[in-house]
Amino acid sequence: MQRSVWAFAIAVTATSALANSKDTSNTQWVDTFIGTGGDGHTFPGAVVPFGMVQLSPDTDNPMRGESQQSEIYKRCAGYHYDDHTITGFSHTHFSGTGHSDLGDLLVMPMTGDIKTSAGTASHPEQGYRSRFSHDKEWSEPGYYGVELLDYDVTAEVTATTRVGMHKYTFNSADKGHVMFDLTAAIYNFKNKVIWSDLRKVDDHTLVAYRATNGWARNRQMYFAIEFSKPISEYKFINEDNNRYRCMGCLGKEKHSTIENQAVKQTAGKAVKFVASFNDVKGEPLYIKVGLSAVSRSNALENLKAEIPDWDFDKTRQAAKAQWAEHLEKVDVGGTKAQKRQFYTALYHTLQAPSIYQDVNGQYRGVDGEIHEGKGFEHYTLFSLWDTYRALHPLLTYIAPERVSGMIQSMLVHYQQSYEKMLPIWSFHAHETWTMIGYHAVSVIADAYLKGIRDFDTDLAVEAILSTANNPVYDAIPEYKKFGYVPMDVLPESVSITLEYAYNDYAIARLFESMGKTELSKEYFARAMSYKNVFNQETGYMRGRDSAGKWNPDFNPFEAKYMGPFTEGNSKQYSFYVPQDVAGLIDLMGGDEKFEQRLDALFDTHLSDEMIKEHEDIAGLIGNYAHGNEPSHHIAYLYNYAGKPWRTQERIRQIMDTLSSDKPDGLAGNDDVGQMSAWYIFSAMGFYPVSPGDLSYAIGAPQVEKVTLKLAGNKSFTTFAKGLSEQNKYIQSVTLNGKAFTRNYLTHSDIVAGGELRYVMGNKPNKQWGKNITARPPALSEYQ
Fold first, then answer.
1. Which of 82, 299, 441, 476 could form a disulfide with 292 if both were Cys (CB 3.0 to 4.6 A apart)?
2. Is 523 helix (H, G, I), strand (E, B) or coil?
3. CA–CA separation, 280 vs 284, rounded Å?
4. For the chain, how many structural domains are there in total?
5. Confidence category of residue 47, pLDDT binned at 50, 70, 90
6. Is residue 214 in some structural domain?
C-alpha cells in the first residue's frame, strides 16, 4: 500500500529535520547521489570517514537473470540511480570501483505475507523487494532515508565506524517483518557463499557469519545484531541442498523453512532469517548491526562500544559531526553547483582506505590469521593503480594523521604475504592481484619525502626492495634482464614496463632522500626503461618480444584485452612517462611536435570498435579518456612543452563537458576517490603529475577561492581573480604577493602556507610559464 503525499510530507519533515535546520557546515553541500548514475559506481548510503561499515541500499542483483554483463557493471556499488526497486540494505560497499564484491548481510523490512526471495525488478511483488521513488528518498553524509512504497515503511540508516543502525517506521501495519539474507551480495560470481550460519541468542540478539568467494577468495565477516523490540516470531530459511544445512532439521528437505521456535540456529550456503514483531505501528523498530572480520564476540564488542544505546538521532548527529569536521579542512568559494561538486568530491575522497580493525585492536591479516594492531590503525581497500596518482597525495594534506597508519598497513601486508609483496589491489585481508605496477612504493615515497615518517622506515626499505625485485610478480626478472617486459612473456607488457619505470623513479627519489646513493643510482637507471619500448619508427610506445622485435600488429588506437596495454591504447600510454616528461618530449621531436601529439590525442576520434573490449575506457574527448586513470595527467603535459595556456584550455574543456553536480556527473567510475581527487586538485588549479617529485603542474583554477587548512595552524589559499566562463586563461600569478613565473608549484610552496593568486582573462598569456626554467622538473635533474 502506498502512503498519501500528506503522510509522506509529515514523515520527511520529521526525519529530515536534522538535515534542514540550521545546517551551516560544509555537509550541506554534499550530494551523496552524485556518481550513482552513469558509470560513477558510488553509493548513497551511510558511512563515516574511513568507516568499515558502508550501510547503503541495493537496487538490484543482475545475477538473478534479468541483466547482461553491462548491467552488472553498472551496479558495482550495489545501487544505481536508474533503478526503481530496492532489495534491501547491506553493510559493506565499494565506492566507485570497476569491479564488484561485498554487500554483506542484506536487511529488508516488509509487511504482509513473508517472502523469502528478492523477486525481480520487473515483478517486485513476487519477492521481498520494494518499489521506491527518488522523490521520496533523501540523504546527507552519514545518513540515508527512503520510502519503501510497497510496504508503507519509512527506512532510515546511519552508521559509526564499525556499526550500522537501522530505523524502520511501519506507518500502517501493526505487524512487521525483517528479512536477513546471507545469500545476497554485490557480485558477478556464481556460488559466492562458501558457508554461513546464524544463531538466535535471545529475543533481542542474533549473531551470524559468512564466508564468500568473490573477487576476494574465502573472505570472512561476522555480525552481531540487536533489536530494540523483542522478536515475537521467527523463521529460519535454509535453501542449501547440503544435508548439514540446518541444525535441528532432519536434513532431507531441499528447501527448509523452520518455524519451530525451539530451533536456535542454522548453517549452510543459503541461509536467511525472518524476524517478526508485533505492535510496530507508530513506534519505530531499531536494529544495530556490528561487523568484525575476526569473530562474533568482537562484532558484539564493536556494537556495544560504538552504539551502546538506541538513540538513532544521536548516532546520526555524531556521523554528521565527523563529516563536518573533515569537510571543514577545506573552504570553497564559488557557485552552489561548484560547491556541490567540490564537497561531494571531497566526501568521496575521505571514504577509503577504510578501517579494518576492531575496537580491541584485532584484525584479520592477509595470511588469514588474527593479529593485534599495535601502535597503528589498520586499514584496507588499497586500489593503488588508481589512487597513487592523486588520492594519496591529497590525503597527505587533508588527512595527514592517517597516512602513516595506511602505510603501516601496507607494511604488515608485506610481512604477512606469502609472496613478500606490498599490496597491489587489496581489500578485506585479500590480495586480488588486479591491475599492474607496484604503486605502493609511490605512496610510501611521496609521504616520506613530505616528512610523514611515523612508520618503520627500515621495514619500508626492505618491503620496497622485495617488491621491486620479486621473482614471482609480473615478469620482474625479464624487466630487469631486458629493460622492458617482453610481449611474448606477459600481456599488457608495454603498460607494465612504463609503470615499473615510474615506480622505480619513486624508489630512487626515496633512496636519494635517505642517503642510499648507490641504490638511488640503480633505480634512477631503471626509471629510464621507458625508452626501451618507444619505437622511433612510429613515434609511439610499442610492444616488443624477447628477441627485440617490435609488435607487427601494432595499431596505436586499439585497446585490446590481453594486448600490450592495460585499459588503454598506445595513443594514451605513449604519454605515460610522468617521471621524465622532458625526456619524452625529446623522443617525440621537441616542444612543437609534442604539442601536436597532445592535440591529436584530444582531437582525433576514437571509434567504439577500438575500445569495445574495455568498459572502463569512458569520458572521451577524442582519444583522451577521462573516465580511466592512464589519461588523468595528460592535460597537464602542455606545461612541460612551455604551453601552459593549452593546459588551461583542456582543463576547462574537461570540467565543462565531463563533470557536473548530477547523479551522472562522473565521467567514469570514481575508483575509490581518484576521480574526485583529480577534481579537487584541478579545481584548485594544480595537479601531481608525478607523485614523489613533490611538484604540481599548474592548470587553471575552476573555482574562485579554495583554502586548504594544513597542519600547524597554517593554510594555503588559491584565489582566482576575474574567473568566469570566458576568463579561463591565467594572465599572471603571485605567491604571497610576489610574482610567480613557474608553471608548477612545489610541496614546500603549499605547506609554507599563504596565498596563490591567479589573475584570469579571456585571452591566453602565451609568455607566462613558457621558459624552460619555468617548467616542472624531470628525471634528468635527479641523476
1. 299
2. helix
3. 7
4. 1
5. very high
6. yes
For residues 551 and 542, what is the distance between their CA atoms, to the nearest angstrom? Answer: 7
User: Hunting for cell 533503478 — which residue is that?
Assistant: 83
pTM tops 0.90: yes
- If you search the block for the grid coordinates 613530505, which residue do you land on? 450
CA distance 359 to 103: 22
Q: How confident is the model at residue 615 (pLDDT cuts 50, 70, 90)?
A: low
| 779 neighbors 507 (Cβ within 8 angstroms) | no
Helix (H), strand (E) at residue 447: helix 440-449
* Residues 737-767: b if buried by 16+ CB within 10 A, e if exposed: eeebebbbbebebbbebbebbbbbbeebbee
Q: Which three cell numbers stand for residue 230?
A: 523483542
Cell of 29: 553541500
Interior/surface letters 438-456, b for 16+ CB within 10 angstroms, e for the rest: bbbbbbbbbbbbbebebbb
Rounded Cα–Cα distance for residues 112 and 104 (Å): 25
Cα(157)–Cα(178) distance, integer angstroms: 14
- Between CA 508 and CA 483 the distance in angstroms is 16
More confident residue, 618 or 228: 228
Q: What is the pLDDT of residue 13?
A: 36
Amino acid identity, residue 666?
L
Q: Give the tens place of pLDDT for each residue, 291-300.
A: 999 999 999 9
Per-residue pLDDT of 392-449, as tens digits, reads 999 999 999 999 999 999 999 999 999 999 999 999 999 999 999 999 999 999 999 9
> Is 401 part of a structural domain of the chain?
no
680 alpha-carbon distance from chain centroid = 15
Q: Taking residues 279-296, what's their average pLDDT?
A: 96
What is the spatial distance between Cα 46 and Cα 55, in angstroms, rounded to a whole number? 5
Average pLDDT, integer, range 259-279: 88
Domain that holds residue 263: 5-325
Compute the distance between CA of residue 235 and CA of residue 257 in angstroms, rounded to an integer: 7
Q: How far is residue 493's CA from residue 495's CA, in Å, rounded to a whole number?
A: 6
Interatomic CA distance for residues 328 and 26, integer angstroms: 6
The CATH code of the domain that includes 74 is: 2.70.98.10
Rounded Cα distance between 266 and 247, Å, is 5
Asked, for residue 457, whether it belongs to a domain, the answer is: no
d(CA 345, CA 353): 15
Is 602 among the domain residues? no
Cis preceding linkage at 353, omega within 30: yes
The DSSP call for residue 776 is P
- Report CA-CA distances (Å) from 40 to 125, 188, 627: 29, 18, 9
Query: Would you say residue 163 has pLDDT above 70?
Result: yes
**What are 284's three cell numbers?**
519505530
Closest CA to 141 of 15, 49, 24: 49
